[in-house]
């Protein structure tokens, strides 16, 4: 697993966050999400002791869709087409800030994710079953906060229990990415002051020299 610079680690975390938000939007609007983009995010919730940030997602390629979106966003090329994605990402960062100060909820989430991981290793690793279990964790903990993420989309897709579970699982994965962003030294004001640095870091991850 390649060693990343601090800027690359921050870009990787932001890419995972945006990838989570983009998949939330895709499921809400179309009812679909690519497994190759969804699975690394879900599995990141069980990366309890990863030595390298990229290992959390099974390698940089696990967040490649998010890196491409991050590059587009930092280059100012979205033209408002990703408004919902950015809104979800900012909301997840906000919720992570609340969660980071809530030791009781953090302990509950960690314990339940470890239990889900144990079951997935010894009983079933069906992705839908895991998503349902992770969604229950989100619903019982973060959904109890007054600040909630309101997902908009096609009512038919949003009313599907499978889609609702995947969306909640992705929101938790996005908050996990926001944790990594903070751990890697990421600050909110970096979005204004460090765009060029983060853009170069994201580009170097997509096209390593």
Automatic annotation (TrEMBL):
Coiled coil: none annotated. One of its GO terms (cellular component) is plasma membrane. Pfam families: DUF489 (PF04356). Keywords: Cell membrane, Cytoplasm, Membrane. Gene3D superfamilies: HflD-like (1.10.3890.10). It is found in: Cytoplasm; Cell membrane. It is a peripheral membrane protein. Transmembrane segments: none annotated. InterPro entries: HflD, HflD-like_sf. It comes from the Bacteria. SUPFAM superfamilies: YcfC-like. Its main location: cytoplasm. Belongs to the HflD family. This is High frequency lysogenization protein HflD homolog. It comes from Dasania phycosphaerae.
